[in-house]
Amino acid sequence: MKNYKVCILTSVHPVFDTRIFYKEAKTLMKAGYDVTLIAQHNKNENVDGIRIIPLPEPRNRLERMTKTVCMLFNIALREKPAICHFHDPELIPIGIILKLLGKKVIYDVHEDYGKQNLYKTYIPVAIRKPVAKLVSFIEKIASKFFDRIIVATDDILKNFITHKGSVAIRNFPVLTNFGEIQKKRNNQMFAPIYIGALAETRGITQIVEAMEYFDIQKNIKLILCGGFSPKSYEKKVRCLKGFERVEYLGYIKHTKVTEYLAQADVGIVCFHPTLSHINSMPNKLFEYMCAGIPVVASNFPLWKKIIERNKCGICVNPLEPREIAKAIEYLMEHSDEAQKMGANGKEAILQKYNWENESKKLLKVYEELCKK
Q: What span, in angstroms and rounded, lies between the C-alpha atoms of 345 and 347?
């Protein structure tokens, strides 16, 4: 496949996004494709065999959607790829143009963007529903131009059911990234962990508030990793009484995730029941399982099905801090059962929920396009 040049395009996601770089780009590179990634970055470089062409960081959203997108388009044209694989809905117009210019084009859909717009704080409440419907409509019409549609969940796949080239390639962990995690847990301190974006709809307030319900003699500290979104939200969280029992580490590199999971006793993923969350399959849920620790997760039907079927954690109402605290305390006081749940989760990852299985579908998509 070395004759096939692939350009992966994103104007929004970080250059080392887990799905884009560590899963898809590296899989394609290892399969022999000539992979170039165009994304926001500070320099030209080659990382793990993947050539990175940088886009400057835009000053605001408007600049990103105009100047940055135009710059990305010009670079993509200059690179003359056989296949263009883009990741953001704002790139749909250039995806169409690239298709009209004879490129094979793949649209990779990470989220249900229609539903997501119902919760965008920068969109006035009065027009969120019309905007959501418009985004969904544009996406469905534009998808007819693209050779393949790749989506991150089975639920998003329903939006493209009429597109014969649509396939769900889910965000499961790369087994080789985790390997055998060397446990470094502190027997004197029980450590729940949350890794990811720290946003209100991701239940950070409730997770921190749950820390208030533990007796002062309980040795427990919540490990919180990630950046606050928006940044002003950090002040609100730091004012919570439960923050006294938080070890905030800020944003951590992808390569450091396993290091912190090795220190944890339970993984927390208590997203709020928004339309964009209920049927999502968050990376962190499966990363916790891969690390061999039990999970405390939102009681959404899909998540509950995965967790209860594999007996790897406890589901709770994510809006109730006391319920989150009770689940954590149960695992704290029943260490043998918690250890068994962790082992069950690890086994489920090894058998079913891993990128090694999902990557076969990605390579099949590319093989079919190359044959054409």
A: 5
Q: Measure CA 337 to chain center.
A: 29
CB–CB of 267/294 below 8 Å?
A: yes
Phi then psi dihedrals of residue 50, to 5 deg: -110, 125
Query: For the chain, give me the number of helices (H) and strands (E)?
Result: 17, 14
Query: Domain span at residue 276?
Result: 176-351
pTM (two decimals):
0.85
Give how many domains the chain has, as a whole number. Answer: 2
**The CATH number of the domain where 270 resides is what?**
3.40.50.2000
How do 34-40 and 45-47 pair as beta strands? Answer: unpaired
Please list the ranges in the chain whose pLDDT falls under 50: none
Contacts of 215 (CB under 8 A, 6+ apart): none
Residues 267 and 191 in one domain: yes
Q: Give the chain's radius of gyration (CA, Å).
A: 21
Predicted local distance difference test score (pLDDT) of residue 184: 64
Query: Given CA atoms 34, 40, 45, 48 in this order, what sign does their dihedral have?
Result: negative
Q: What's CA 278's distance to the chain center, in Å?
A: 14
- pLDDT value of position 253: 85
Question: Residue 6's beta-bridge partner residues?
Answer: 35, 83
Q: What is the pLDDT of residue 125?
A: 80
pLDDT score recorded for residue 123? 79
pLDDT digits (tens, 9 = 90+) for 293-324: 999 999 999 999 999 999 999 999 999 999 99
